[in-house]
Every structure is written in structure tokens, then in C-alpha cells.
């Protein structure tokens, strides 16, 4: 079970390897949001998303022996790149199971980072969990799950340690922290870090319309599933349901979920381009979209949106600019 | 005359107001550059460019009386926004003289930051210096020149202090520091800061083809002019000639200039999008283009490119992605 001690230990292992990402802001965005808005730019993390933190945390926690046998991960793309980069830096081989419809950029980057990529069909009979388990068994590889894994949650939690410190430097001690949420690894890691370091900063998970399993699960008090598992441009945060490990943490520590539309995510991407000079993917812009376009569902004079990733294909980014910039 | 003491004093005035921008990198870019490549992401500075540093430094150094009378600046856009934002924060009015062909985004932002914008024709009879002087005299406004002004150079120099510190943290003590160069305010400020703090980091000014006044002036040992004053997409770094104050500093401290093409700047923008998740304007990407596409003209095992700004119109950015991403 991930604790603040584990998160601090992960932060020590990540020091000098993960980037301390900046907390950005713009008066133009404050005006739209109707309050002070800060954006934690995790798109500037190595491999273009926060997933590098969890990947590094998990790989660096392995025994020497396990590292030598190598690791395996399943991922729609960002966890894939995070694990691949971390494995490479530790001299471990990595096999990554990815959906065939993941953005080309993510598949190619994962290969270029030295991992062996195995594609599977999201709509097919075999789940990615099953494909992953089969490979892991065969080669003695250690499976690094994308979110239901204590060392991964601890790694993502290091982002929360930075948020606590950076918010304090801005004079923010009470605010909601909007976090794009798939399986809940980042949301639960940040929530645990904030519980210990900045208890008046509260996580609110953000999801795209039609894939709001966490929001519905939090409302119901028990795990709910998404009816469908693909078909959103917010590919980074599509998961069937909250994790078994993450959900109890989310339940205990997070506020209600927020739901945004794909169009709002695209508009947020265009505004992040214009006002912050950062590149966000749709799933990475959901939290910013919630802050900008759903201000009435948010409490407080300041809000922090964690912009979780920027691995977007150029064509989709051009479309966001053509429509909304 | 700007000294390291003035730069340190400017850093103290900027503390908590200007952003410490991150030093980014990507193994994919290292491979193209053939060495370790670090990008100082000044596009993430307030107002989208390093010019906020010089604007804040100059406005914060004014007497109370002068602040009350207000300030005036001439600028193709980034200095305009930097001065406008700094003036607003200090409660001073700002008049900004801008070329009519500056990017719409820069003109609009300057207005939105509360400044009065006066447009002039770059090809017209009256120089921007003359327009600026006329306004300054009329209203008792203090003219804040874009580069030939010691407090502006001191402000830009704070970027050099950060580079010295961040390079040391990366283990880099000897490298060339590529800086996009218009009138030379940033190049000379960084050069002065590095002279005092990291003498084995050496500035190399970077300019677009056809507007290489600094490169030719450095080679000749005396000031040379550009034949033309407009007509490049690198609008941020087009100036008629090096400054009277900046040129002696550049001469004493910088290595030879580097010249890149517009196409190379556009390709660098696309690679910064793909690999660093930052938005650069063409003039802000020239240094990165030099590092990526002219490695044979650069010395050493590591290179630092200062990515000076990201205020690019969406249409031009889309074009860069469509062609090169």
C-alpha cells in the first residue's frame, strides 16, 4: 500500500532523473476561468507525460535480478514510453503491449526508446491484462501495471509533492487540484502526497464524456465500468474502470469527478498553445478544460489543473488550432 | 553600463515575478544534434518570451515619479508584451509603437495587456525610434528601448544566471550557448552573466539568412547593417543593426554568429512540438535550428539553445507541423 514514506522514497530515486515541471499561468486564462488558474505542465516531463515518474519509480525499485530479466507493461502509450525510457536508463529490456489504435506517435516513440512493442486489438477477445500476463510468465519479466501498482502510484505521487511546494510558493494553500484520470494512479498518488503535505488542496478527477467510470464510481461508492473502451480522442485516460488499489484511495481523498467533452478538450489544447506555449494531447488537456469551461462546478479562489501529457499526433493538434485558436 | 552587479540586482527585483524557465532535452534531439542538446525554454516565460525579464527590470528600476508618468516602447511584439505586462503590474500606463506587419497575436496581446498600441509602417519614412521619441517627449513618458538600455540588458542577463546554474546541475561546465539575436540585448546580457558565473559557457548569436547583421558585424569588427528590415518569418529578431551598447559586449564575449534558413526554423518548430512539447515562434526556434542542423559549426560535447519565444500565429504553426512534423 502506497504511503507518503514510499512517495518520498520514490522522489529520492527520481531526483536528478525526472524533471521538476513548472507551474504555469496566464492572466488570459485566469479571466476565462474566473479565478487564478495554475497549470502543472507534466507534458514537459521526460517522454512527454507524468508516466515517466511511475515508470522510473517502479523500475528503480526492482531487484538487480529482476532488472536483468526485464520488464513488461501494457499501455495506450504514455505509460509505455515512461517504462521504456526508465528501463533503458536502467539497462533493462522492456516489452510493451499496446492497442493497435494508439496514436502512431506513441507507438513509434516506444519503439525508438528501445522497447519491443506488441500490438493487440482493443475490441478483441483477449484483454491487455491477459496478453501482458502471458508474456510476463513466458520470459520471467516483471509486469509493471499502469496504475494498480504501489510503486507506480508512489512515483506519480512525486508530482503531488511538487504541487504542494509550488502552490505554497504562489501563496495557494486551499484549492482544488484537477487531475486527468484513467485508472487513477496519478490521482491517487497526488491525493496521498497532498494529504500529507497540503491537506487543503483536494484532488478532483477529470474524465471525458462517455468514459466517466471514476466519476460514477465515486458517486456510487463502488466500482463502475465504462460501457465502451475506445472511441475517444482522450486515449490517454480511457480505462475500463478504476483500479482495485486506486479506488479506495480516490474514495477516501478526492472530491467528485468532473466530466468534459471532446470539444472542450480541443479548445483547451488551443488555449494552452496560445497562452502557455505548451503542447497538450486531448487527454492531457481535460483538466484544463474543466477549469476553463466548468468553473461553476469548482470551489475556491484558485484552481490547479494538472496537464498530464503532450503526446498528440500533429494532425490532431493542427485540427485543434484550425478550429479553436 | 550593465555589470554582473546590475544583473544580480535585476534578478532580485524579478524574483517571484519572472519564471525560472526549465532546461529541457530529449534523446531524439540529442541524436539529431550529435551531442547533448539542452533547450532553455524562455517561451514559457510570462508573455511568452524572455522580453518580460528586461521589461520588468526596466520598469521596476524607475523612480516613483517616472512610473506615474508612464512608459513607452517600440517593438515588433515580444518586447511590447513584456513592457506592457510589467507596466500593468507596476500600475504604470504604457504606449507601445509596433510595426503594422507584426503578428496579429502580438498586437492583440499587447492591447489586451492594457497598453495603448500605435502602429507604424516598417517601410515608411519615419523610423520606430523617431516615432517613439516623439511620443516620449510629448507625454513625459520614459522610453524603454528594446536592447540598447542597461537595465533591459541586466534583466535579460538574469536568463544567463539561470543557465549557469542549470548547466552546472546537468554537469555541463563547457559548452556553446546559442542565442537568437536581434539587437543583442539577450545575447549581451547572457554573455555578461556567463562571464561572471560560468566562463566556459560561451554565447553564439544566431540569426536568419538575410538578416545576419550581428554575424557580419562580429566578423568585420564593426557595426554592419541589414539591407532590408522586414520580410522574414523570424520577425522577433529582425533589427537594422546591433546596438551601440550591445555590440561592444558581443564583440568582447561572443563567438562567431550562426546563420539559419527560414525552413530550418520551421523544422525546428516542428521538432520542438514533437520532442519537447513546447510552442516556438520562428525567431524563437533559430537557435534550436542551428544546434540541430549546423552541428559542424558548433564546438563541444554539449550545446545549449535558448528558445527565446513562442508568440506565433496559429496558421504559421500549423504550416510548420503540416510540412515537417
TrEMBL record, chains A, B:
Pfam family, one: PALP
Any one biological process term the GO annotation gives: D-serine biosynthetic process
Tryptophan synthase beta chain-like PALP domain sequence ranges: 16-309
GO MF entry, a single one: L-serine ammonia-lyase activity
EC primary class: lyase
Domain of life: Bacteria
Lyase is among the record's keywords: yes
Cofactor: Mn(2+); Ca(2+); pyridoxal 5'-phosphate; Mg(2+)
Record EC number: 4.3.1.19
Record's keyword terms, sorted: Lyase, Magnesium, Pyridoxal phosphate
Family: Belongs to the serine/threonine dehydratase family.
Record's protein name: Serine/threonine dehydratase
Lineage, uppermost ranks: Bacteria, Pseudomonadati, Pseudomonadota, Alphaproteobacteria, Rhodobacterales
